[in-house]
Description:
Blueprint: E1 6-9, H1 15-30, H2 36-46, H3 49-57, E2 62-67, E3 73-80, E4 93-101, H4 110-124, E5 129-134, H5 139-147, E6 151-160, E7 163-173
Parallel strand pairs: 4-5
Antiparallel strand pairs: 1-2, 2-3, 3-4, 5-7, 6-7
Helix pairs in contact: 1-2, 1-3
Amino acid sequence: MTTPIHWRPAVASDAAALAILGGATFLASFAHDHPGEALVTHIRKAHGEDYYRAALADPAQTILIGETPLGAPVGYALITPPDLPVPTDDRTDVELKRIYLLSGWQGGGNGDALMALVLAEARQRGARRLLLAVYPQNDRARRFYARHDFVEIGELTFMVGDVPFRDLVYARTL
């Protein structure tokens, strides 16, 4: 049994914790098939404290952070305006840019609870559709999104160093 998670909106002082959590979860998820040096460089940029400081300072972005009762960060979700290569409407679409839980807190309904919070935040923003990108080889995540009524609507290519990777773009009507 894992310790419970307390979810709350992240604040500026959470940038360091989010950077550690983001880097750890990205590394755990993708170290098996991403080139090492490029992966570390990518994590430093895409999950560095500066990235999270900027996201937290942007009123168009919301980060929900999950902590144990002792305050240790174990998961988060980042909701942003859409930035995906599919037709979008900034007035009615939002993107779930990131949703991560440390492995010890996966299962047991924690992911479902976090997704419920994400959906509530999207609806509160007046969104009619929630978009996200997922790595095709991440079968567990794809099953999770299918369980939450997401469907594939496109794809994108992203670079880790000089190696291209493909993501699938999913959407869910709210």
